[in-house]
Amino acid sequence: MNLTLMIASTVRGFGVLLLLGALILTQAAAQPQISIHIQRRDFSGNLLRLADGSFVAEKNGLYRLTPDANFDRKLNFDANQPFAGITGGRIEFVRLLAPLKDGGFLASVNFYIPGLGWFEQRLARFDVDGRLVWSYDTVGRKIRAAIESPDGRLLYAPEAEGDLYSLAVAIQANDGRWFYDSGIGGSAQDFAVQGSNVVVGGNLINRYGGPAPIETNGLLRLNANLVPDTSFRPPRCNDISRIALQSGGQIIAHGRLTDAQGVFEIETSVFRLHSDGSFDRRLLQVQANWPLSFTVLTNDEVVILNGVLLRYHSDGTLAQSSIIENLSFFEYLLPDGSFLDFWFNGDAGGPEARCQRNHWRKLKPNGQIDPAFPPTPLDDLYRVYLSVTNTLARHHYEVEQSSDLIVWQKTGAYGLDDGTGSIESINVGVCVRREDLTQPQFFRVVEVPDL
Prior knowledge:
The protein has helices at about 350-355, 435; strands at about 5-10, 15-20, 35-40, 45-50, 55-60, 60-65, 70-75, 90-100, 105-115, 115-125, 130-135, 145-150, 155-160, 170, 180, 185-195, 195-205, 215-220, 235-245, 250-255, 270-275, 280-285, 295, 300-305, 310, 320, 330-335, 340-345, 360-365, 380-390, 395-400, 410-415, 425-435, 440-450. It is an all-beta fold. A hairpin with a 6-residue loop joins strand 14 (about 170) and strand 15 (about 180).
């Protein structure tokens, strides 16, 4: 792609236009110096791996991606026409929750219906082509996790208060017509299917069969009838944030174990359990709140990232460790060894903020950012980074952008008074679409006198 960018540098009303060749602009010592760097922007939307290994991606529409995260097709979905026969409606995706065996998926969504207003945090089922099948009211509760049980019923974890009578796990008919309480209180964070059973992780209270707590733990198992399985006896643990299964039913979990005195440890651990829940071994222990992600590969090897990438044999013994540049928190490991790296910049309200807080990148096996991701039909935004040096301390600057040198739009205002006079540069990031970058783009820095 050919890019033409120009800089209009304006200082005290004096402007000079320069074409960026080597992307470095040098000027007289009295004027700011501007350099530029262009980078493909992260995909800021929702992404979910489906049952067949492909992906569904959501941002202003629904898209299918191949197992290696390349573009497949756009699904026949219109966010402004979520319901047949109703015009003026709208759907916002809060989160893509879980794949379904029929190729569809579950999602948490907000609906707008003209004349009725917004209906938030609904559990919704979509088919393989992205069409809405049904939705169910969760009374405005956020949904932390969801899964399809072996018999087709759906389990989801609404955000709960964490006490005895909280609804930690709700069980929903696959046609969306009814739901009932699983008998688990506390709060759930993750699910995993184990044969005909479902393993649940979080901070859980088994109150099935009566009002008094029968069992409090971070891991419980529901049997084929989706009733708590009293034969499942994991070690005492809590704060279970993630669980994954190996092919033999062994459980890999992340949370807190107890020490020799039965006191919950401050540090968190990734540990392995036998299929009956009995403890096998601890793989890793890290300090509390340390970012950590892991996955189980098809050959039952375990890959953990906690600043260092650790690979474990299927029995939980360490195979190798390595440092992967740029890799921060991977969500998916792809067949070719590359990563889909995920991070978020905090929670906020509104559809724009919800979209902007999710960031996805594809990293090659060596950690280099793959510029081909996200695929062009899905998202095609670039970040133009302007670095302005040789500025004057205690001065106020504004950065403006134009495509015609007539109409200028301010992209940011930056005051340089830090009380010491030591600031020597400012950095600006401007988001530009590919189609805009095919035309000349002009930027200028304007010094504005402080009042």
